[in-house]
Fold this sequence. Notes:
By secondary structure, the protein is of the alpha/beta class. The protein has a single domain (9-255), classed as Metallo-beta-lactamase, Chain A (4-Layer Sandwich), CATH 3.60.15.10. It is 24% helix and 23% strand. It is built from seven helices and 15 strands. The strands form three sheets. Strands 1-2-3-6-8-9 form a six-stranded mixed beta sheet, covered by helices on one side. Strand 10 and strand 11 form a beta hairpin. The termini are far apart.
Amino acid sequence: MEAPAQLPTVESLFDPVTCTFTHVVHAGAGTACAVVDPVLDFDPKSGRVSHRSAGSVVDTVERLGLRVEWILETHAHADHLSSAHWLRARLGGRIAIGASIRTVQSTFASVFNLGPGFAVDGSQFDHLFGPDEAFSIGGMPAVSLHVPGHTPADCAYRVGDAVFVGDTLFLPDVGTARCDFPGGDAATLHRSIRRLLDLPGSTRLFMCHDYPPAGREPCPVTTVDAQRAGNIHVHDGIECDAFVAMRERRDATLSMPQLILPAIQVNIRAGALPEPEDNGVRYLKLPVDAL
């Protein structure tokens, strides 16, 4: 029998290659859990995948005797491949993402010319969350929050006093996510961020990424109060127009993420690799001059 609802315990695992945090959210040893934003290791030089990062998730779940109910994606990541499909086969659980993933699938099905055999209805995922949809992780109430702007399909997940923000926010000394991917919009991101920053000041905000400046170790968590006081891009007093102007200037200087092309192809498939072709080999496409 599950314990009564309580504040979550969070195990945060950092992948230094992609600067990604994967979080395991639970109510204590032996309870149900959710895995948020798991990483599939991928070497773009050789095309090889491995499971070092995902194996750390398995180790954590098994060490604590947890039962995986959910594998939660905050969005279709452009900077790392998801190991959700691999983890589900080993640990169970339901892979979930925001319902607007269908918009992202439609966009990139065209970019990669995936053809009529690729479904753009989100059916690769076990569950599509609507805005403000309530769910539970064992005895812990949770809610999905639609926070578009970085992409159209970004979700944050609120579990007790913890919110898993995806790429919507970074730590205060790093700032905010880019908005120049297809369907991204800086004004929309500002509205999404302000929605998160209207939560109680002590709310813990768990990052999907950290890119620490020199002298600081990667850190998985901050608070609403810390973001409102010190986020270099969006602290209190920065209005939407100023944020949009800053974000557009900054985004114009950024190169594409190293793994965007392989990552998107896998992540719109809920972490599954493309099916092998008739020679038994799986292929990821490399569109030329398409982005």
